[in-house]
Amino acid sequence: MFRKRITAVAVGLVACHALCAAAADTKTVEVMHWWTSGGEAKALAVLKDGLKAKGDAWKDSPIAGGGGEAARTVLKARVASGNPPDAIQMLGFTIPEYAQEDYLQNLDAVASKEDWDKLVPAPIQKFSKVDGHWVAAPVDVHRTNWVWANKKIFDQLKLTPPKTFDELVADADKIRKAGYVPLAHGGQAWQEATIFDSAVMSAGGPKFYQQALVKLDPSALGSKTMEKAFDQMRALRGMVDPNFPGRDWNLATSMVITGKAAMQIMGDWAKGEFASAGKQPNVDYLCFNYPGTDGAFIFNTDQFAGFKKGDASLPGEYAFASTIMDKGVQAKFNQIKGSIPARLDVPQDGFDECGKKSMNDMRAALKTDSMVGSFAHGHAMPDGPKNAVYDVVTHFFNSNQSSADAVKSLVAAVKNSQ
Ligand code: BGC
């Protein structure tokens, strides 16, 4: 459905080329993104400064909304009206979907000059390249199977990072009895999906995760193992406070930072909020893998693609892509953002302990085929099934549905979406 709609508006986009080319002569790069939280905005400033250092101007087009749902909707509308931004933050399968409709700039000239083929891990390149051509520049690697914990609360209650899901449940009980919210959560579909990434991995491990959420194998989707993932979701639902519906992810992080809540299950952009508030890992907060997911690295990577608008826009877009991939920019950006560089040659110096752990874990996971794409952030399955699974997960989390029924809905929803 998505492709048909995009094809239908292609005529409008072609009509825009002459007008857009004139605007692009100024080498101002309009960048659309959804980095509007405190930590995200600080990290974004590194990219802005990097582009300015190349002599180009940055036109900022922020679209608030964690996970990028709102930004994707705005992008569709702007493409439909023939007025896409020059560059846009994109996740996973969205990149090949736009590239296959011939909307994205070919970045091969910059990529080969700067040797991106050798610098970027294969699972990331899978989304940056389409039919062997670079169409997006990856700036970071985020990981979703993290728990962020308030160290003061953990110390007070003599808790250590739980190794199994049952231990997490037992800890949550102690935390609630001591008067804290065990789990800070924002009730938005993408945040529930983010937790589901970890629950599926914990219940079944990397092979099962791939079979179910990447290959969409009905027997894995409908299995008892998948029921266990929903059981974990049900237990986690019992750990949140009554005000969770609609809460933004960074407000949930703030509950952990301020000691109202003990833990948050979230990608490491949450670490950007701790850093922005002046908090230190192992002093103020703890970072550990969601129980049962040691060795697995569930990734999402923020990439920037440039939209075709006539050749005149290319110098600005090339300069932007080159900024994104700059070694120094990736070091500085990722230390603030909470993620790790998409380039493998950036040294660990300057990264905190959580960042170093992530860099080491990613390298280990690459060797064991345990670096898998995040379902929640569009790196496991295309948008059609992804949205269908979002609905199943969020309905389950916000109702009393049984795990057995959720699994049946999951199989049906994936089947209908294909
Ligand atoms: C992006 C992150 C971003 C997070 C919250 C994710 O989809 O990959 O860069 O910080 O959403 O907005």
UniProtKB/TrEMBL annotation:
Where does this chain mainly localize? Answer: periplasm
User: From which domain of life does this come?
Assistant: Bacteria
Q: Where in the cell is it found?
A: Periplasm
Signal peptide feature range: 1-23
Gene Ontology cellular component?
A: periplasmic space
What keyword terms does UniProt attach to this protein? Signal, Transport
Indicate yes or no for the key word RNA-binding. no
Return the similarity comment.
Belongs to the bacterial solute-binding protein 1 family.
Question: Known PANTHER family for this protein?
Answer: ARABINOSE-BINDING PROTEIN-RELATED, BINDING PROTEIN COMPONENT OF ABC SUGAR TRANSPORTER-RELATED
Cited function: Part of a binding-protein-dependent transport system for a sugar.
Protein name as it appears in the record: Probable sugar-binding periplasmic protein
Give the species. Answer: Paraburkholderia ribeironis
